[in-house]
Amino acid sequence: MILDERRRAIHELGHALVAMSFGWPIVNVGIDIGDHSLGATQVVHPDEDALLEVQVSEDEQITVREKYEQLLIQLAAGSAAEELIYGGIGDSGDPYVPTSDRAKFLDLIDRWQLRATDYGALRFGVDQPFAASTQAAKAIMTADFYEPLFDFLAGLLVKDRLLTGPKFYEAVLQYWQSHVSSGVGSE
To answer: CA-CA to 159 of 20 to 30 Å: which in 9, 39, 71, 165?
Structure first.
Protein backbone atom coordinates (compact mmCIF):
# COMPACT_ATOMS: atom_id res chain seq x y z
CA MET A 1 0.00 0.00 0.00
CA ILE A 2 1.38 3.40 -0.96
CA LEU A 3 0.83 6.09 1.64
CA ASP A 4 -1.49 8.92 0.74
CA GLU A 5 0.00 12.30 -0.12
CA ARG A 6 -1.06 14.04 3.07
CA ARG A 7 0.46 11.31 5.23
CA ARG A 8 3.73 11.50 3.29
CA ALA A 9 3.68 15.28 3.70
CA ILE A 10 3.12 14.92 7.47
CA HIS A 11 6.03 12.45 7.62
CA GLU A 12 8.45 14.76 5.81
CA LEU A 13 7.28 17.78 7.80
CA GLY A 14 8.08 15.88 11.00
CA HIS A 15 11.69 15.63 9.86
CA ALA A 16 11.75 19.32 8.93
CA LEU A 17 10.11 20.66 12.09
CA VAL A 18 12.38 18.66 14.41
CA ALA A 19 15.44 19.74 12.40
CA MET A 20 14.25 23.33 12.71
CA SER A 21 13.91 22.89 16.48
CA PHE A 22 17.59 21.88 16.57
CA GLY A 23 18.52 25.01 14.62
CA TRP A 24 19.44 23.13 11.44
CA PRO A 25 18.65 25.02 8.23
CA ILE A 26 15.99 23.45 6.00
CA VAL A 27 17.06 23.18 2.34
CA ASN A 28 13.80 21.68 1.06
CA VAL A 29 10.91 19.38 1.89
CA GLY A 30 9.22 17.38 -0.85
CA ILE A 31 6.95 14.51 -1.78
CA ASP A 32 7.03 12.58 -5.07
CA ILE A 33 10.31 14.20 -6.02
CA GLY A 34 11.11 11.98 -8.97
CA ASP A 35 13.69 9.48 -7.71
CA HIS A 36 11.12 6.81 -6.79
CA SER A 37 11.11 8.34 -3.33
CA LEU A 38 7.87 8.87 -1.47
CA GLY A 39 9.40 12.01 -0.05
CA ALA A 40 12.54 13.65 1.22
CA THR A 41 13.63 16.36 3.59
CA GLN A 42 17.00 17.95 3.06
CA VAL A 43 18.57 19.80 5.99
CA VAL A 44 22.00 21.09 6.85
CA HIS A 45 22.94 19.08 9.92
CA PRO A 46 26.11 17.93 11.61
CA ASP A 47 27.95 15.53 9.35
CA GLU A 48 27.63 12.12 10.99
CA ASP A 49 30.87 10.93 9.42
CA ALA A 50 32.70 13.93 10.83
CA LEU A 51 31.20 13.20 14.25
CA LEU A 52 32.51 9.66 14.05
CA GLU A 53 36.01 10.77 13.10
CA VAL A 54 36.44 13.67 15.49
CA GLN A 55 38.83 13.30 18.39
CA VAL A 56 37.53 15.33 21.30
CA SER A 57 38.43 16.01 24.87
CA GLU A 58 36.40 14.47 27.68
CA ASP A 59 34.56 17.78 28.17
CA GLU A 60 33.51 17.87 24.50
CA GLN A 61 32.20 14.29 24.44
CA ILE A 62 28.77 15.29 25.72
CA THR A 63 28.32 17.81 22.89
CA VAL A 64 29.30 15.23 20.26
CA ARG A 65 26.91 12.67 21.77
CA GLU A 66 24.07 15.23 21.90
CA LYS A 67 24.57 16.13 18.22
CA TYR A 68 24.62 12.46 17.34
CA GLU A 69 21.43 11.83 19.31
CA GLN A 70 19.82 14.78 17.51
CA LEU A 71 20.64 13.11 14.19
CA LEU A 72 18.89 9.95 15.38
CA ILE A 73 15.88 11.87 16.68
CA GLN A 74 15.57 13.79 13.41
CA LEU A 75 15.65 10.51 11.43
CA ALA A 76 12.83 9.14 13.61
CA ALA A 77 10.80 12.37 13.45
CA GLY A 78 8.84 11.38 10.33
CA SER A 79 7.50 8.29 12.08
CA ALA A 80 6.86 10.36 15.21
CA ALA A 81 4.78 12.84 13.20
CA GLU A 82 2.74 9.99 11.73
CA GLU A 83 2.12 8.59 15.22
CA LEU A 84 1.04 12.00 16.52
CA ILE A 85 -1.35 12.75 13.68
CA TYR A 86 -2.52 9.28 12.64
CA GLY A 87 -1.94 7.20 15.77
CA GLY A 88 0.53 4.89 14.05
CA ILE A 89 3.28 4.55 11.46
CA GLY A 90 2.44 3.80 7.82
CA ASP A 91 4.26 1.32 5.63
CA SER A 92 7.16 3.59 4.66
CA GLY A 93 9.51 2.47 7.41
CA ASP A 94 10.79 -0.85 6.04
CA PRO A 95 14.31 -1.32 7.46
CA TYR A 96 15.21 -3.51 4.46
CA VAL A 97 14.73 -0.66 1.99
CA PRO A 98 18.16 1.08 1.97
CA THR A 99 16.71 4.57 1.61
CA SER A 100 14.15 4.23 4.39
CA ASP A 101 14.51 6.26 7.58
CA ARG A 102 14.83 3.09 9.65
CA ALA A 103 17.62 1.73 7.44
CA LYS A 104 19.49 5.03 7.69
CA PHE A 105 18.87 5.06 11.43
CA LEU A 106 20.19 1.51 11.87
CA ASP A 107 23.25 2.33 9.75
CA LEU A 108 23.96 5.34 11.94
CA ILE A 109 23.54 3.25 15.10
CA ASP A 110 25.89 0.61 13.69
CA ARG A 111 28.54 3.23 12.89
CA TRP A 112 28.07 4.85 16.30
CA GLN A 113 28.51 1.54 18.09
CA LEU A 114 31.99 1.30 16.60
CA ARG A 115 32.84 4.39 18.64
CA ALA A 116 30.58 3.72 21.65
CA THR A 117 33.56 2.78 23.81
CA ASP A 118 35.02 6.21 23.12
CA TYR A 119 31.89 8.20 23.91
CA GLY A 120 29.81 5.93 26.12
CA ALA A 121 26.36 4.53 25.45
CA LEU A 122 23.68 6.70 23.91
CA ARG A 123 21.40 8.34 26.43
CA PHE A 124 18.56 5.98 25.55
CA GLY A 125 20.77 2.89 25.21
CA VAL A 126 20.83 0.37 22.43
CA ASP A 127 17.53 -1.37 23.28
CA GLN A 128 14.80 -0.07 21.01
CA PRO A 129 16.70 3.07 19.92
CA PHE A 130 14.27 3.86 17.08
CA ALA A 131 11.30 3.77 19.46
CA ALA A 132 13.18 5.92 21.97
CA SER A 133 14.15 8.43 19.27
CA THR A 134 10.56 8.49 18.05
CA GLN A 135 9.41 9.29 21.59
CA ALA A 136 12.00 12.07 21.84
CA ALA A 137 10.79 13.54 18.54
CA LYS A 138 7.17 13.34 19.72
CA ALA A 139 8.13 15.23 22.87
CA ILE A 140 9.39 18.04 20.62
CA MET A 141 6.26 17.98 18.45
CA THR A 142 3.47 18.13 20.99
CA ALA A 143 0.21 17.24 19.25
CA ASP A 144 -1.83 20.15 20.60
CA PHE A 145 0.54 22.72 19.19
CA TYR A 146 1.80 20.96 16.08
CA GLU A 147 -1.34 19.34 14.67
CA PRO A 148 -2.79 22.57 13.21
CA LEU A 149 0.67 23.53 11.92
CA PHE A 150 1.01 20.10 10.26
CA ASP A 151 -2.41 20.56 8.63
CA PHE A 152 -1.44 23.98 7.27
CA LEU A 153 1.99 22.94 5.98
CA ALA A 154 0.76 19.59 4.61
CA GLY A 155 -1.82 21.42 2.51
CA LEU A 156 0.93 23.53 0.96
CA LEU A 157 3.26 20.57 0.44
CA VAL A 158 0.59 18.39 -1.21
CA LYS A 159 -0.31 21.29 -3.50
CA ASP A 160 3.24 22.37 -4.42
CA ARG A 161 5.08 18.99 -4.04
CA LEU A 162 8.23 20.84 -2.91
CA LEU A 163 8.83 23.56 -0.36
CA THR A 164 12.25 25.17 -0.64
CA GLY A 165 13.87 26.29 2.59
CA PRO A 166 12.77 29.92 2.19
CA LYS A 167 9.22 28.89 1.26
CA PHE A 168 9.09 26.49 4.24
CA TYR A 169 10.21 29.22 6.68
CA GLU A 170 7.82 31.73 5.09
CA ALA A 171 4.93 29.28 5.55
CA VAL A 172 5.85 28.59 9.20
CA LEU A 173 6.06 32.35 9.83
CA GLN A 174 2.74 32.92 8.05
CA TYR A 175 1.10 30.23 10.19
CA TRP A 176 2.64 31.63 13.34
CA GLN A 177 1.52 35.18 12.57
CA SER A 178 -2.03 34.27 11.58
CA HIS A 179 -2.77 31.54 14.14
CA VAL A 180 -0.53 31.47 17.16
CA SER A 181 -0.05 35.18 17.75
CA SER A 182 -3.83 35.69 17.50
CA GLY A 183 -4.46 32.86 19.97
CA VAL A 184 -5.96 30.44 17.41
CA GLY A 185 -4.43 26.97 17.69
CA SER A 186 -2.70 27.72 20.98
CA GLU A 187 -3.69 27.38 24.59
So the answer is: 71
